[in-house]
Amino acid sequence: MRLFVIELRKERRTGVFLVFPSAGVLGAVYAFLVFHLRKDTLLSLPSAPMDILLTQLCGIMTVFNLFGIITAACMVCHMEFQGGAAKKMAALPVSAGAVYFCRFLILSMLLLAAAALQNLALLWIGRTDLPQGAFVLGTLLRFAGYVFLAAMPVLSFMVLLASCLQNMWVPLGVGVAGFLTGMAFADTEQPLFLLHPFVVMLKPAAAMNAKPDIAVVIAAIVETAVFLCMGFWLTEKSHYE
Amino acid sequence: MDNIITTERLTKKYKRFTAVDGVSLHIRRGSIYGFLGPNGAGKSTTMKMLLGITAPTAGSFSIDGRHFPEDRTAILKGIGSLIESPAFYANLTGRENLDILRRILELPKDTVDDALELVGLTEAGNRLAGKYSLGMKQRLGLAGALLGRPPLLLLDEPTNGLDPSGIHEIRSLIQSLPERYHCTVMISSHMLSEIERMADDVGILNHGRLLFEGSLEELRCYAGGQGKPAGGLGKSADGGAAAYLQPGGVRLEDVFLAMVEQDNAAGKRRAE
Ligand SMILES: Nc1ncnc2c1ncn2[C@@H]1O[C@H](COP(=O)(O)OP(=O)(O)OP(=O)(O)O)[C@@H](O)[C@H]1O
Ligand SMILES: [Mg+2]
Predict the structure, then answer these.
(1) Which domain holds residue B265?
(2) Domain shared by B44 and B98, yes or no
(3) Is the separation of the CB atoms in B178 and B31 below 8 Å?
């Protein structure tokens, strides 16, 4: 808890606290715009109204969040390396692994805030624009949880990369490359591609209905845990070059 | 004797290159220990091992009877350090930077102002550390080391980048520390006249090996006995001879240069 507060204080003036709310607001504004401009076209698609609401808007929101994750992870770690603070931290009585974990936690909570904003927008649209009786709150909540979970492997992966690589441009480049390859493979059926964290994140957006895919859920949980443990272990070990 | 740091044949190898080679140091409690050596001698590497930042390849050391890695937290709580260039968060002010350190070390709030005051950074405390001048960054680094007045200070070239009056000021500060509050200082510097004025003991390192360890007085006797300053006269004929003529006036600089030169020559002969 003490470490968590310290980590929060370190992020002052880095802009990290702006990135996720911006992604959230952008996503929400986008949802409103699309639904107001193209409401009739969207609702005449051959799917259930709830599926249309969730899957048609999910794509862009996911992309906003994804770039939010990439930038925020790079910012947080860049600030640690920039003035050589990481070096100073190594000579202080803190566990580098615990610091890493706090950083992961902060970014997860910020992502959660962004997702909350976006889902509030969906809730609003669902209440006002869907045909009478078509909106189901349970479905929205379940899908929101599913999308958030699917985003966690990318977050875990980006924090791992950005914490281990001093040059900010490398994780940034890997993030963009991950996004592009993820886009390319997001709609393949081959389960092996679920090993790619960016594919996992884009899966909910690529699906045609709002039913969570159990394979994606499992892949998300496993990958998040694996990257988190790897990062914890690597930062803890890097004390002793 | 009461030593706060003892190292036992401490060695660090990077691949095949030996940066520190079987160094056994003895640092007395409450003393100022000057750690000397030319560039690349292994001073910073030795200090990094003492802080647990790099693991020794061989050998061992104890700090106040404690050992790495099992006592890591306890050891690091009692050491204030400044290794090579100062390290800080560029997005935070000087005061916020110290506050982060204070929270990690679990010290009371007023230690931050105390440290800023000690290094003369009170006025600039609320400016961004990233925008500090080199000397101010150095002072901030020093303030970070002095935070909470720890019993042991490891300072690697603390006067690097300071102006002449700053050097004088920081030297007086460091010199006064063991009296002000009972602490031990291990300091490396290239300013030999500095070390000569403030150190009680010195250790001289060259190519990772410890050439000499002892008090300044012992060094003078040792050098006198071996006729070392004379060996250095060819290079520094100006001050060297004059200083040598004064009773007890052997300059550390001459002794140091002669010692390193002789060791380098011996090293070359060994290599051939
Ligand atoms: N991480 C590393 N990998 C490989 N070699 C290293 C590493 N760190 C230091 N060295 C080497 O170890 C030697 C000793 O370096 P060190 O920084 O301890 O010297 P120093 O005595 O502090 O020198 P200076 O007076 O220039 O600060 C140098 O030759 C350096 O190249
Ligand atoms: Mg050095």
Answers:
(1) 3-78+151-271
(2) no
(3) yes
Q: Whose CA is nearest to atom 24 of ligand 1?
A: B39
Q: Report pLDDT digits (tens) over B44-66.
A: 999 999 999 999 999 999 999 99
Residues, CB-to-ion distance under 5 Å, ligand 2: B 44
Mutation target among A1, A81, A92, A235 for the B interface, most CBs of B within 10 A:
A92
Looking at the structure, do residues B40 and B102 belong to the same domain, yes or no? no
Ligand sitting nearest the alpha carbon of A241: 1
Q: What is the pLDDT of residue B222?
A: 77
Question: Which of B124, B150, B176 is the endpoint of a domain?
Answer: B150
**A16, A81, A88, A241: best mutation site toward chain B, by most B Cβ within 10 Å?**
A88
Q: What HEC string does chain B produce?
A: CCEEEEEEEEEEEECCEEEEEEECCEEECCCEEEEECCCCCCHHHHHHHHCCCCCCCEEEEEECCECCCCCHHHHHHCEEEECCCCCECCCCEHHHHHHHHHHHHCCCCCHHHHHHHHHCCCHHHHCEHHHCCHHHHHHHHHHHHHCCCCCEEEEECCCCCCCHHHHHHHHHHHHHHHHHCCCEEEEECCCHHHHHHHCCEEEEEECCEEEEEEEHHHHHHHHHHHCHHHHHCCCCHHHHHHHHHCCCCCCHHHHHHHHHHHHHHHHHHHHC
Residues B96 and B43 grouped into a single domain? no
Q: From the CA of B17, give the closest atom in ligand 1.
A: 5
pTM of the model as a whole: 0.88
Nearest CA-CA distance, residue A27 and chain B, Å: 29
Residue B209 distance to chain A (closest CA, Å)? 22
Instruction: Indicate whether B119 and B188 sit together in one domain.
Output: no
Please tell me the distance in Å from A77's CA to the nearest CA on chain B. 11
B229 pocket-lining for ligand 1 (C-beta < 6 Å)? no
Number of domains in chain B: 2
Residue B86's pLDDT is what? 85
Residues B30 and B124 in one domain: no
At B138-191, the pLDDT tens digits run: 999 999 999 999 999 999 999 888 888 888 888 898 998 888 888 999 999 888
Pair (B256, B168) in one structural domain:
yes
Last residue of some domain: B133, B150, B167?
B150
- Measured CA to CA, the distance from residue A97 to residue A232 in angstroms comes to 5
- Contact between residue B53 and residue A91 where contact means Cβ atoms under 8 Å apart: yes
Interface contact flag, A87 B53, Cβ < 8 Å? yes
Q: Which two tokens stand for residue B158?
A: 């603390």
Which residue lies with its CA nearest to atom 5 of ligand 1? Answer: B14
Spatial separation of the C-alpha atoms in residues A178 and A180, rounded to whole Å: 6
pLDDT above 70 coverage of chain B, percent? 90
**CATH code where residue B210 lies:** 3.40.50.300
